[in-house]
Specification:
Two copies of one chain form a homodimer. Chain A has 342 residues and is of the alpha/beta class. Helix content of chain A is 45%, strand content 12%.
Chain lengths: 342, 342
């Protein structure tokens, strides 16, 4: 499959590009007027995330308005816990809330996993077909999933948390049950991502959003082996891994089968290259708060970031764009990157 | 001043000790029965934090029940914003909430700072006198303050936040006003800590709890210079600095005038020694979640931590003890450390 704008894929083919490709985490979301209109027209977030036509619409909007180099299929990482048997809601301004949670090892017996679970996600795969038709060969499409530890954390906590101490407590108190659940989640993610690729997704990104909560030894026991297993099972498309905040684990990722690592705004790229070598492709890492600054300052920061990153760089923020960001500021960022030449 | 148990001070005097000293962040708090009784007897957190007799009572309780090597004066980092003019409340299970906040540079004009502000904190100094009388020469007393960036963040946000994006936005939008406010906070902290020392505090700890929110360049502009200024102005007692989560700044702390650095559970001590040298005293860093595990596992983890840390170590957790921790598990930890020999 070839696209009019393939600069993102070219980076993974090790072709020399004249500038870094750019897309923005949460680009399809509340910063855009079309998204807000669609969101206001439905009963809630869950209706949007399960409606293939609406998903296609909000997924392509950033290509048209922001001019990013790739689309990312609108979805939520919590579709995995849901298809495994834990229903959730998104409470406006608060975040996810689960109806029931895993509070003891016995609760895991009620879950389903793998193909059986993924079969419940037909709407996601249908939305890929619809989105690809709307994109019509202009740009590649990214698909994503949460990483096992991050999904595990939500399944235990039942929502967000400052410390994720319930989930971490479960790891210390029930190590075997934890491994059993992480295995089931991983198996489900593998089927899910393979299916997404079959339907036409061109790249995948795995988000370990709560990587930063775990001490090194726990991350090495309860997260990284599952990430490695998933990334090894996914073939045929480039794979980006985002272990948010897990700087102390980066030296342990030499054998992680990823094609790019996405880093937050607190992680210097020099640190990553020191530990993972010069060949690794780095995605990131402008502070999303910088988009609140004046446009000249945003331009200066974008140039500084590109200087610091050098080649083998995918421009992105260090985290999802904040919902109250003025989207013309995002346009300024994207124009700055797109007119830059190495 | 000499104490029956001086092991914590001995570490700073570079004396050889037979084991690491131990105290626990938030040791005077909800894990203890006496604290809960006192807390239930008052109208709210604010009454407790302003009552010298009650402060003395909850401060000495961990010496008696847990057997820690030092007491830490019960207080809150938000007494500084309050004495500068921003009143707050602590909402049970939610955390701090301010009545008014700094939302524009003009709001800073309404604040007071330095001696004038600290003069409102007579109850803190009175509580030191009462606590010292209760301790009666058995153990040293630690006093603490929040660091300027962390207090600034609360003053802008008006409470806790997952991203502290309002506070970070203020830094990008109003850099001069930010420096003005950080200067006023620093000046107030200096007077506050000097006064605490005058009243008999034997060590101080500066908490930069939200250090981890800032990218390197912002931390170097808006936090570290103020920390350095405060620590340089404080003389005569050992100084511990806790830049929570700010691992990427540690290489920039070579000239920070601290006697010990406190680290969270995600920061390996080897990383600190690599950047700050073998002489630095390291405080920390057991994951507070580990105290939920079984007692044999807590003992094993404590031994492993002491092995990893070696000498020049003050045993502590990597963050405050979680309020629902069983205090007999904390006793197990403390007994393990106190019976260990290098």
């Amino acid at each position: 499959m070839s696209y009019k704008n393939e600069i993102l894929l070219d980076v993974f083919k090790k072709k020399a590009t004249e500038r870094p490709p750019i897309w923005v985490m949460r680009q399809a979301g509340r910063i855009l007027p079309g998204y807000r209109q669609v969101r206001a027209s439905v009963s809630g977030f869950k209706e949007l995330v399960t409606s293939p036509d609406l998903i296609a619409e909000v997924t392509v909007e950033p290509l048209e308005i922001l001019g990013v180099d790739a689309a990312i299929l609108f979805s939520d990482i919590l579709v995995i816990p849901e298809c495994m048997g834990l229903d959730y809601e998104i409470i406006p301004k608060k975040g996810p809330a689960f109806e029931k949670v895993i509070s003891s090892p016995g609760d895991i017996d009620d879950l389903i996993s793998g193909r059986e679970a993924v079969d419940r996600l037909g709407y996601v795969f249908e939305s890929i077909t619809k989105t690809k038709a709307r994109i019509n060969g202009s740009n590649p499409l990214i698909g994503f999933s949460g990483a096992p530890w991050t999904l595990f954390a939500y399944m235990i906590e039942g929502g967000g948390s400052k410390t994720f101490s319930k989930a971490r407590r479960f790891l210390y108190e029930h190590p075997e049950a934890s491994h059993r659940l992480l295995d089931m989640i991983s198996e489900t993610i593998i089927v899910y991502l393979q299916e997404k690729i079959k339907y036409g997704v061109d790249l995948v990104q795995l988000f370990d959003s709560w990587a930063e909560m775990l001490p090194v030894e726990q991350y090495l026991e309860f997260s990284l082996p599952y990430v490695n297993k998933i990334l090894a099972a996914i073939t045929g498309v480039p794979k980006i891994f985002f272990p948010k905040g897990a700087w102390s684990i980066i030296p342990h990722m030499k054998d992680t089968p990823m094609d790019a690592i996405s880093i937050d705004w607190k992680t210097p790229p020099s640190y990553v290259r020191q530990h993972l070598g010069d060949d690794i492709i780095i995605q990131g890492n402008m502070d999303p708060c910088y988009l609140y600054a004046s446009q000249p300052r945003i331009m200066a920061k974008a140039l500084q970031t590109m200087d610091e990153m050098g080649q083998r760089h995918i421009f992105n923020l260090g985290h999802g764009v904040y919902p109250d960001t003025d989207y013309t500021h995002v346009q300024t960022l994207i124009n700055t990157v797109k007119t830059h030449r190495y």
